[in-house]
Structures are given as structure tokens and as C-alpha cells.
Write a structure and sequence with these properties.
- The chain is α+β, with helices and mostly antiparallel strands.
- It has 10 helices and 7 strands.
- It has helices at 10-14, 16-26, 76-88, 90-110, 159-225, 231-265, 295-298, 300-321, 366-432, 438-472; strands spanning 2-5, 56-58, 116-128, 139-154, 287-289, 326-337, 349-359.
- The strands form 2 sheets. A 5-stranded antiparallel sheet has the order 1-7-6-4-3. A two-stranded parallel sheet has the order 2-5.
- The longest helix has 67 residues, at 159-225.
């Protein structure tokens, strides 16, 4: 490192004003590439967005999911759970703390634009052991000092500016991470809630089935007692009843796990939370669908990846700026005296002011390596950004086709369920008339129960797919990644 220092006189100090003006002019420029978002063709429309397909609706101007996107389901219980989650979810709390930390780092980076001011004061007393004449006299002296320093590094090549730019982009990425954590927790809660409600519907169906099987067992036993039915029919009816009871018991641990998961999402211990069963008739709402290009702003993970790409681009400028000399302007002054009474008098005053240039002449290729590293980091982040965009587009396409196919499957399942109910009624009549044994009834009942459970599961699958589609579209996030880069000028 080579340093050149020029401490001027009073007259020369006045000549520093043009130097300061020149520094300000040079500080307006910054070396390194200016950032541009990596180009990527996202298409004009979604492939699976077929007109009239259920589960989504084309978004009209001004019509989109709002910040409380889950309200499209019209479930007051879900609304209350979401309010508790937004206030106490620990993943959100952690992401919010990370965002505040990133904001503090921005303020720390911006501090480099301003001079550093210091002050010091001291009192010392010193003495020697004796004189050379052998008289034994001692020499004691006092020193009083009060001084201050001002140091400012001119951002001639934009190194500080690029560093602030990188910090701002990092903070914006953290804001997107916060939105992503919030959306992920909200989506998980909605999916767990609907899964729990579907299990409640399955439980209701099985409870009704157990009651029906109990009546069938009683009827079969009565028929056996009068010699109309055989003992094998009683055994079949008993087996069918116990299997239904086992299926009903099996639902308990599944429901309990979803209830525990919801409790943790809301930041409370599972032992302190319970969600009562209630009738559930939830229609699948239409999710407003925008254009693929809107994902670039409305998906938190996409926005976060794009901001990290901007951060990596700014780091290239920081690395390039290391090739140019640094200019530091410093000034110091104060009072220094051996007598306290003369401490703050004009004769005890001292001062100095002057610029210093520092440049590295040889570093063994370190700066070139740092530039190559920064460029490689940018290329990697740009590729990661493009990959995340493609993944986001794939998710939307997946959930669109899933919603469409599940809606078609549900229509077919309704016809199968109606046929199973009719077959069951017909077979029961035959059994009561003694035309068939109970095994035939049990077979048809098993088919009908499977059709009933499949119909309920399809409702849950469609609700889950609609939640996933809403999350894949960015939920109700408005794309705000404050602090805005353009608004934070030094």
C-alpha cells in the first residue's frame, strides 16, 4: 500500500475546497455494471388456463386476491386462526427479525457516506528519577490535551455506493423472505385446517355407517334366531361392523396430528389448543388468475431471488473499485499545554488538515480473483433466479390442471356414488326378501362406503389444490420490497 499525505498550511487549506468539489462530482459515478433484471420468456398466458375450467377465474383489472386471501373461503373459524397465526407464528417472527437486521445493515452501509468525527482528552503527569549532578532533585511535568479529528473517505469510484446498493437489495430480499414466510405459514395452516375438516366429515360418515351396521347386525341376528338367516350371515355382519369401528378409531390420531400442527403454526403448545368439530360444507372458490409476468412481482420467492441477483451485481462494482486509489480527507485540531491555566489559550492550539491517497500497487492477482468471484456469483444467482421463475410457472400450471381434473373427477364420482346408493338399496330389498345372503349386502355396502369416502376426499383435494394455487400466485402479496432502492439516495 502506498500513501501520499499533504499536510497544508492555512493558505493551502483554502485550496482544498476545489478538491472537495471534485470529490463530490466523482462520487456521482460508480464503476461496475449497472443492474438489469435477467431476461426470461415466461409466456403470454398459462397453458392450463382453459376458459371455463373450474377452480379459477380470469383476473379482471383491479380484481385479485387481497392481503387476506383466505377470506375467499368464507370460513370465520379459518379467519380467526389466520389472525392468530399472523400475530404469533414463530417462523414469521424469525423472518421479521432477519428483515430488521437487514435494514440495520443498510443504515450501517450508508454511514460510510458521512465523515467520522472523534474527540479525545487527556491528562498525564511524568517525572524522572534524578539529575546528573547528583543533587538528587527530581523533574516532574504535567501535560493537558484536548483534541478532535474528522476523517472522510471520498467515494470517488462508487465502492461505497455499490456496497449500499448491495445492502439495500439484500434488505429487499429479506422483505420478500418475510412475505414468503408469512404466505407459507398461511398456506400450511389453510391446508391443515381443511384436512382436519375433511377428517371430521369422514368421521361423521363412519359414525353413521357404524350405526347402520349395528342395525344390520341386529336385523341379521333376529333373522338367525327365527331360522331365516344362517350363522355365516351373522359373522359377516359382525366383521363388517368391527372393521368400520376400526376405521373410525384410526381417524382419531390423524385428526390429532393436524390439530397439533395448527397449534404449532400459531405459536402455542399443542396441549393448550383444541378445535371443535362442526358441520362442514365448503364450496371450492374461484381463484383470480393473472398473467405469468405478474409472478415476477407477486411471488415472494421470485422477488427475493431477483433482489439477490441485484445484490450480486452490485458486489461486482465493489470488487472493480478496489483497482482505484482511495482518497481520504482528514483534519485534526485541539489544545495541548503543560500548564492547566494555559490549556485553552491560543498559544496551546494546534491543527492539521490534508488529503491522503492510498493505492495498492501489487497484490499477486487478488483483485482480479475477487472480480472473477463476484462475476461468477452473479451468474450463479441469475441462473437461480431463472430456475425459481420456471419452478413458479410450473407450480401454477400443476395446480391449474389439478383443479380442472379433480372437478371432472368429482362429476364422475357423483355418478358412481349415486349408482352405489341405488345398488345398495336394491340389494337390501333382496336380502330382506330372502333372495340373497348377507355377504352380497356387505359387498355392496363396502362399495357404497368407499364411494362416499372418495366423494368427501375429492372435496378436500379440490380445496387443498385451490389453496396451493392461491399460494403459487403469490397470495395477496402486493410485491412491496421496501426499502425502495430508488428512494434511498445518499
Amino acid at each position: 500500500m502506498m500513501r501520499l499525505s499533504f499536510p497544508p498550511s492555512r493558505a493551502r487549506a483554502a485550496r482544498l475546497l476545489p478538491v472537495l468539489a471534485l470529490c463530490g462530482a466523482l462520487g456521482a459515478c460508480a464503476v461496475g455494471p449497472d443492474y438489469q433484471r435477467p431476461a426470461l420468456d415466461v409466456g403470454a398466458a398459462y397453458k392450463e388456463a382453459r376458459q371455463g375450467a373450474p377452480g379459477w377465474t380470469p383476473a379482471q383489472p383491479g380484481v385479485a386476491l387481497d392481503s387476506a386471501w383466505w377470506r375467499v373461503y368464507g370460513d370465520p373459524v379459518l379467519d380467526g386462526l389466520m389472525d392468530r397465526l399472523n400475530a404469533a407464528n414463530l417462523d414469521i417472527v424469525q423472518a421479521e427479525a432477519n428483515y430488521r437486521q437487514a435494514q440495520a445493515l443498510v443504515r450501517g452501509a450508508r454511514a460510510s457516506f458521512f465523515p467520522t468525527v472523534g474527540v479525545d482528552a487527556g491528562v498525564t503527569r511524568s517525572g524522572s528519577g534524578g539529575s546528573s549532578s547528583g543533587t538528587g532533585s527530581k523533574s516532574v511535568s504535567n501535560a493537558f490535551s484536548l483534541g478532535g479529528t474528522v476523517t472522510w473517505e471520498a467515494d470517488l469510484w462508487g465502492s461505497i455506493r455499490r456496497n449500499v446498493e448491495a445492502s439495500q437489495a439484500s434488505a429487499q430480499a429479506s422483505a420478500a423472505d418475510l412475505a414468503g414466510a408469512r404466505l407459507s405459514a398461511q398456506s400450511t395452516l389453510a391446508q391443515d385446517y381443511f384436512q382436519l375438516r375433511i377428517l371430521d366429515e369422514q368421521k361423521r360418515l363412519l359414525e353413521e355407517t357404524v350405526a347402520a351396521y349395528e342395525r344390520s347386525l341386529t336385523l341379521t341376528q333376529n333373522r338367525f334366531n327365527v331360522g331365516v338367516a344362517g350363522k355365516g350371515d351373522v359373522a359377516v355382519a359382525q366383521t363388517q361392523l368391527e372393521n368400520a369401528r376400526a376405521s373410525l378409531v384410526d381417524l382419531e390420531w390423524q385428526r390429532g396430528q393436524y390439530e397439533h400442527a395448527i397449534a404449532v403454526l400459531m405459536g402455542v403448545a399443542p396441549s393448550t389448543f383444541a378445535l371443535a368439530a362442526q358441520p362442514f360444507r365448503q364450496p371450492v372458490p374461484d381463484i383470480p388468475l393473472g398473467l405469468p409476468s405478474q409472478l415476477l412481482e407477486r411471488r415472494p420467492d421470485v422477488a427475493g431471488a431477483e433482489r439477490r441477483t441485484a445484490q450480486a451485481n452490485a458486489q461486482i462494482g465493489v470488487a472493480v473499485a478496489a483497482w482505484f486509489p482511495d482518497l481520504t480527507l482528514s483534519a485534526s485540531g485541539g489544545f495541548r499545554s503543560g500548564e492547566f491555566a494555559q490549556w485553552l489559550t491560543a498559544p496551546a492550539r494546534y491543527w492539521s488538515i490534508g488529503p491522503a491517497l492510498a493505492a495498492t500497487l501489487f497484490d499477486g492477482g487478488l483483485r482480479n480473483a475477487q472480480i472473477d468471484s463476484a462475476r461468477a456469483a452473479y451468474d450463479a444467482q441469475a441462473a437461480a433466479y431463472r430456475q425459481i421463475v420456471l419452478g413458479a410457472l410450473r407450480e401454477v400450471e400443476d395446480y391449474l390442471i389439478q383443479l380442472r381434473v379433480l372437478a371432472d373427477e368429482q362429476q364422475v364420482q357423483r355418478r358412481a356414488l349415486e349408482a352405489a346408493r341405488q345398488s345398495l338399496a336394491y340389494t337390501r330389498n333382496q336380502y330382506e326378501q330372502g333372495l340373497v345372503d348377507y355377504l352380497s349386502v356387505a359387498t355392496v355396502q363396502t362399495t357404497a362406503l368407499s364411494a362416499e369416502r372418495s366423494a368427501i376426499s375429492l372435496v378436500g383435494d379440490r380445496l387443498i389444490a385451490s389453496v396451493q394455487l392461491a399460494a403459487a400466485l403469490g397470495g395477496g402479496w402486493d410485491g412491496n420490497v421496501q426499502p425502495k432502492l430508488a428512494a434511498d439516495k445518499p
